[in-house]
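FOLDING PROBLEM:
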Amino acid sequence: MRFGILGVVEARDGAGHIVALGGPGVRALLGVLLLEAGRVVPAEALIDALYGEEPPESAANALQARVSRLRRALEGTAEIARVPGGYRLAVEPGDVDAHHFRALLGEASGLPPADRLPLLDRALALWRGPALADVPALRGHAAALEEARASAVEERGAALLAVGLAAEAVAPLRALVRAEPLRERARALLMRALYGAGRQGEALEVFDEGRRILADELGADPSAELAAAHLEILRAVPVPAAAPAPAADRAAPRLPARLTSLVGRDADLVRVAELLGDHRLLTLLGTGGTGKTRLAVEVADRSGGFAVFADLVPVPAGADRDVVALAVGNALGLREVGVRPSGERADPVERLRRELDGRAALLILDNCEHVVDGAAGLAARLLADLPDLRILATSREPLSVTGETLWPVRQLAVPAADDADAARAPAIRLFADRAAAVRPGYSVTGDDLPHAVAICSALDGMPLAIELAAARMRALSAAEVAAGLGDRFALLSRGDRSKNPRHRSLRAVVEWSWDLLTPEERRLAWRLTVFSGGFREADARAVCGADPEVLFDLADKSLIARGPDGRYSILETISAFCAEHLAASGEEPGLRRAHAAHFLGLADTAYPGLLGRDQLDRLALLRAEHGNLHAALRFAVRTDAVLGMRLVGALSGYWWLRGLHAEGTAAARELLTGTVEAPPGLEEEWAACVALVAMNGRPPAPSAELMRRADVIMRRISGAVRRPFLLALWAIAAGPPDDHAEQVELHRSGGAFADPWSRALMDLGDGMMHLFNGDPVAAQPPLKAALEGFTEVGERWGMATSRDTLSITVELAGDFEGALALLDSALELVRELDSHSETGDLLLRRADILLRLGRTEEAARCYDEAEAQARRAGMPATLTDLHRGRGDLAAALGRWPEAERRYHAALAAPASTWHSQRSRAESLYGLARAAEVRGDLTAALTHARQALTAAATHPMSRYLTPSIRTLLTRLPPLS
């Protein structure tokens, strides 16, 4: 079967008959697949090509429908395969006219003019009209093909001139100039062709016309090439060959063969091609194993022009410009052919310049980092002398040549474990593709997907590392590979034997970069591994004594990366390698202590701002340093309990505001082990540890003695509290005290509520106590005062909690819509805090109110959202209460068996905090109602009595008491 896009899109069967394809949508789809014949085209790329930047919501379904129609049209002749991430048209590139056209151009490149002509004629004969003429959506691809066609016409014209057939070149060149009047090379060739055919006057008219058009359209003068042709004609210079031809006995250089498909680099391919069109020197930057070479070769292959690939790895480190030029000459097939009379070698740079002169060539300088000065010198010289040359370099640091443009080649994107489209992420697609090569038929299934995500995440999305890991799938499962990455250098120690030794193991990849560092750079590199999750320059100076210049040098050499926000980061693989050197250096204990002290200072400085208008800025700062703060905490817990408690105290407010309730629990529990009393001066920090463990809701809970001792500390607080948020944490952990009024008065008289935030917290507590005592009307004034106080200082958690609690008073008054409005405003605030736990709790409350309003579908969606948030935050108490809520929903819909299952699930969870008692009372009441419905009155009576007892233990569940008593009056007493 033959396919065509050099004209209208067409397909022919084996007999040469045109296949009926259908409408423009199907033809456009075939056009895109033919542009990538035999390669996988991601579904996203197909949608982008067919619909542009604003695809309809139904684009994915529409694409599937088009694929089905195209399959029917091509049935029996060509297969469209659905593969992970996209589609592939199973045809050879040679069966598509556009690819055949480019192949002929590549074959012609570098041949003598007489040998080039037949190939160029065959290539241009493939054209039936404008490329992709009936597919307007692909006009960008069509323009690239038309440009290649125009270049081929120019090359053919130059070849005709070179062999003395100037007259034959006139017509096609004139047609090209008419179509593209600003195309100066074509105009210069037409002038020479006319002059060579004895039509000097017409040639000069063509120049005058071009000069006028350039002035009118661009305000520019004729190019040097056009002016030179004009001068030659005026001087009656004999017609020259258009370009020097290489020796007839030497074949054009070839690009390295691609043995695997390029996965996950669609955006890079497009952007690098665009940059090469606009800039003559482009350097692909990145650490080892990111796929710079593979990307460069693919870009060159798709360009279809004359390309030279020079691998500089064999060149000795530090080699100068001449030695690098010799390596490039070898890639071109140049050899030394004797010596000059003086005995000196021919200048390799000059020989290279002569060889490339007049040729539109792309030179790939691969792996420049160890010869960066020599490569830079050669690039500068060649670019200055050869205006038609473009250079694509790959390196771990820039060449730093004037005019150089940089394109960082990043690691492949790794999805989150819960991402619905995780299997289609570039890193996962690469892992699946390479694993299938060693284990035929393998695909990333639902069971393997979490392990594949863990593998790709641990390897930073580094393509080479992922390929090495996938190769181990020959003998191991994905779970075993993931587990083995604790010692990644041992696991990934055997790769493709055909590759350069530095790419056969993960350690070799990193060592290649390490060996190129100076002693000062290595010392700073291993010191920087004390950071976790990135760092700022100021942090590196404070903790590691970093010289900013050395830091910049490491970034230039791709050992670390500098983000747009100025923060630096280190890949996990690089960090693991450098950490080995840190451990051997003897500096680690001192550096880790300096790191912990530095970030304790940062947390201490940020704490006051958490309780005011700068809250979001302070949270953003602490969130950016989340990894460092927890690395500091882990070190302190192991080595210095005092430092650990100070960190817990400084971070407890941050954890709560962000909804990270479980974050510090493990550290707090370990710090409390064997510590039954607070260390002197750390009473608040010790109490914060007890509160965090108590609030977590997971066993083991703090002992009664620990809770008693912490309560004593909280009652003894006098004067201003150093960590005001501790008051809120303790109230939540311990529940309402019996002597609330006395305690508030004691703290007020001692000055504990001197600051505006603490005074608002006192009002919030007063309002809650009125609620707990069953008086929602009396609760409203202090709650409104609390909301006003928190609003005045600009603190979002307090505002949200005040509105949430006010919504309860409104709900109890029967105004459910008013309660929803207050809850929605509270939700906006906690979402600004990015608190999943608070969001989950408020969504659960919202769902309960929607259910009381009879809006069951909305309630069901709200319960689903609440569960997603609670799972992200790791909140077992909220998940337990969700069983109760979904039980109420099932009951409202008359699905009583499901309701009973849900209530039993809620009761099966341990009642770990005093808040859990409300859910327990509501679930028991639900079971009593369910038992009554199915006629089991004995069970209904038992559950109702248990519910009545449970309701009495939690002040907010007392609203159930009238309903439970009403149910009891309907039930006969037990005999």
